[in-house]
């Protein structure tokens, strides 16, 4: 078999056949003329607000968006999305029953909103800048080229039997073809399931099976930080246990040939045979756009479901207002498309707003710790959005790596995925942003679809407090709950963070498990959406996230359930049981600490056991889920009913022995003493 290498990785210069019918149905020639009636600068800030009687200023707009939620979202949805058929009902939601429906009756196509309408106005605007791992070799794709590529993939999927309602799994790093694949699914009405390309074959297989995909899209190899990963090989292993998979599309990122079977399709070659026009499917607002698996507090990852109109609208509105994005800006979100941040702020939000969005394939330290800032200078990035873990790492390398490069293009700096400590926040603000760029610490989740709490939008002169997400976004009404489930109304208080009313961006269900969706998010505080996080509300009413309330830990911004790791550790033949906790780690935010009890009479060298445990965790989940510390113990602290007391383990690891609490309820209080002694021999440095 012959290989044509990397054809689709360079923009083709094919003449563009315009999909006129799609445009006629989908795209108004320009936004409707807005009559100014509201507050004077409010309408300039948000044109729709001109129709909101008596609303002046951003705080008033937020207030209006919550108290007149339907009016607010109806106006925004009409104004910012292109509909094939208008919606007749703004919302039909009942949080207590887990029923969430927005913009019913409306029909649209997400790829038309992200591509065709830009092509109609500015076909030659750059949609994607692919910042390849090899520094200085970036590739630009215009909106016209991205639409063309998307149509070809859409037609290829159709030719291989993908129909409306099917789900396609995408196992690719951040790259243009991954974006085109996501949009191609949206174009033909299929759902996508992007699986982070760092996941193991087992983790991938579990997600393919749950999504029942017949097609998997991957690459021969991935390239990141100068290292090659064998993506196709991982897919080959995964699909052995996935009977639903009929074809694997393989794109070429490197020149290396990989073994191909009859099941495999050479994507670059086959795409060239396809037409550059692909009629967009008319989708209902509540049809599924994608599944995205994330960790919860049980062993099984949950496939959160996002739908078409509400998700797209929310991603677009937050991208525009939290980051003060303006037409023509270059938006640089350096996340991976395998996570929700990549979905909302690399792909859907920026493209729906006609932005130029950066696809960052590399790492913050490759080939040196100046990589981000050199990229900012070369690509003239205006908004930079990254993770605290990377900021903490770069801070340690010193200011010279930042100062070497011109960052005058930067206007807003964003942070996401985990709490950002004050030191990192201040360095980001003072050194990276030269004290002139607002830093927005954005709180949200896979479940929320887009940013829910962030310092912006706010009036230009309003304060931003380091390390605080601060202000709810439009349409978001956060509440704090006490342990009895009562709403805490006072300020300067902490509680469980819930959201009191539905918003268009929220997840609708868990794929194939609506019961679990209701149990996890709707039942803990009936009538409210429970986030799983705790928060503090300051005397001035600002929110600060204090961390997870469940058994989910956050390693370098990656969510992982302790139960998921325990399930895998317990599969080792030598292990009787285990308990995994997160502890505070200066770079990763949280590290993983595993307490392991061996089976009776088990003789195994500690070293061998550690090796075995690490390899099984990276084989079954991913490398980032490997424990940093493993402590062999004789028994675990348990209640009399057999529940492992992880709280006690956390206190021991935090050396907070004074607040171990009442141990008399433990089955065997002496177990704690043993653990304290064992832990004292471990150096956590
Ligand atoms: C945590 C990532 C503190 C939080 C977008 C949440 C944060 C989980 C912040 C979601 C923040 C996210 N400050 N904690 N600014 N942003 N988190 O689903 O615990 O990967 O519940 O979504 O990350 O992680 P997920």
Automatic annotation (TrEMBL):
- GO CC annotation, single: mitochondrion
Q: Which Pfam families match?
A: ACAS_N, AMP-binding, AMP-binding_C
GO-annotated molecular function: acetate-CoA ligase activity; AMP binding; ATP binding; propionate-CoA ligase activity
Q: Which reaction does it catalyse?
A: acetate + ATP + CoA = acetyl-CoA + AMP + diphosphate; propanoate + ATP + CoA = propanoyl-CoA + AMP + diphosphate
The EC number(s) given in the record are 6.2.1.1
- Identify the domain of life: Eukaryota
Q: Which protein, by its recorded name, is this?
A: Acetyl-coenzyme A synthetase
Query: What is this protein's gene name?
Result: acss1
């Amino acid at each position: 078999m012959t290989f044509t290498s990397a054809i689709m990785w360079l923009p083709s210069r094919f003449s563009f056949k315009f999909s006129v019918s799609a445009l006629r149905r989908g795209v108004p020639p320009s936004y409707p003329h807005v009559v100014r009636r509201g507050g004077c600068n409010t309408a300039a800030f948000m044109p729709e607000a001109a129709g909101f009687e008596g609303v002046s200023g951003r705080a008033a707009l937020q207030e209006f968006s919550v108290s007149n939620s339907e009016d607010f979202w109806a106006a925004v949805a009409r104004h910012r999305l292109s509909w094939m058929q208008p919606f007749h009902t703004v919302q039909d939601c009942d949080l207590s029953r887990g029923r969430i429906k927005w913009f019913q009756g409306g029909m649209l196509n997400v790829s038309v909103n992200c591509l065709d309408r830009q092509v109609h106005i500015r076909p030659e605007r750059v949609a994607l800048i692919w910042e390849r791992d090899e520094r200085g070799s970036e590739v630009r794709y215009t909106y016209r080229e991205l639409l063309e590529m998307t149509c070809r993939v859409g037609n290829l999927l159709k030719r291989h039997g993908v129909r409306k309602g099917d789900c396609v799994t995408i196992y690719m790093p951040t790259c243009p073809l991954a974006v085109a694949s996501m949009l191609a699914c949206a174009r033909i009405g299929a759902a996508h399931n992007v699986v982070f390309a760092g996941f193991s074959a087992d983790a991938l297989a579990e997600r393919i099976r749950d999504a029942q995909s017949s097609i998997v899209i991957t690459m021969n190899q991935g390239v990141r930080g100068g290292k090659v990963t064998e993506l196709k090989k991982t897919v080959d292993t995964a699909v052995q246990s996935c009977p639903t998979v009929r074809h694997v599309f393989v794109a070429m990122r490197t020149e290396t040939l990989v073994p191909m079977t009859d099941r495999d399709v050479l994507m670059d070659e086959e795409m060239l045979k396809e037409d550059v026009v692909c009629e967009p499917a008319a989708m209902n607002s509540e049809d599924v756009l994608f599944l995205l698996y994330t960790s919860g507090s049980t062993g099984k990852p949950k496939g959160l479901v996002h739908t078409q109109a509400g998700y797209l609208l929310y991603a677009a509105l937050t991208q525009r207002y939290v980051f003060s994005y303006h037409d023509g800006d270059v938006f640089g979100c350096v996340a991976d498309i395998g996570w929700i941040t990549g979905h909302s702020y690399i792909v859907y939000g920026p493209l729906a707003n006609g932005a130029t969005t950066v696809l960052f394939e590399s790492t913050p330290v490759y080939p040196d710790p100046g990589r981000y800032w050199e990229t900012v200078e070369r690509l003239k990035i205006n908004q930079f959005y990254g993770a605290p873990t990377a900021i903490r790492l770069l801070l340690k390398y010193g200011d010279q790596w930042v100062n070497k490069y011109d960052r005058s293009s930067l206007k807003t700096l964003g942070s996401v995925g985990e709490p950002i400590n004050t030191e990192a926040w201040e360095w980001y603000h003072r050194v990276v942003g030269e004290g002139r760029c607002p830093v927005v610490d954005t709180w949200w989740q896979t479940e929320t679809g887009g940013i829910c709490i962030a310092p912006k939008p706010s009036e230009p002169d309003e304060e931003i407090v380091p390390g605080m997400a601060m202000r709810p976004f439009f349409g978001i009404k956060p509440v704090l709950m006490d342990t009895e489930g009562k709403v805490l109304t006072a300020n300067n208080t902490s509680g469980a963070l819930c959201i009191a009313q539905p918003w268009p961006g929220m997840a609708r269900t868990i794929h194939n498990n609506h019961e679990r969706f209701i149990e996890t998010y709707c039942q803990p505080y009936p009538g409210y959406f429970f986030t799983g996080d705790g928060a503090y509300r300051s005397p001035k009413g600002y929110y600060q996230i204090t961390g997870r309330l469940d058994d989910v830990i956050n390693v370098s911004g990656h969510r992982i359930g302790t139960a998921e790791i325990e399930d895998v550790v317990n599969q080792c033949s030598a292990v009787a049981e285990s308990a995994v906790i997160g502890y505070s780690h200066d770079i990763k935010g949280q590290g993983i600490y595993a307490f392991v009890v061996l089976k009776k009479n088990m003789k195994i060298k500690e070293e061998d056991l550690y090796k075995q445990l690490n390899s099984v965790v990276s084989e079954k989940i991913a490398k980032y889920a490997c424990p940093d510390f493993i402590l062999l113990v004789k028994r675990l602290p348990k209640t009399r009913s057999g529940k492992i007391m992880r709280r006690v383990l956390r206190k021991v690891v935090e050396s907070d022995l004074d607040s171990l609490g009442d141990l008399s309820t433990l089955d065997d209080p002496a177990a704690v003493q043993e653990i304290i002694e064992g832990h004292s021999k471990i150096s956590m440095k």
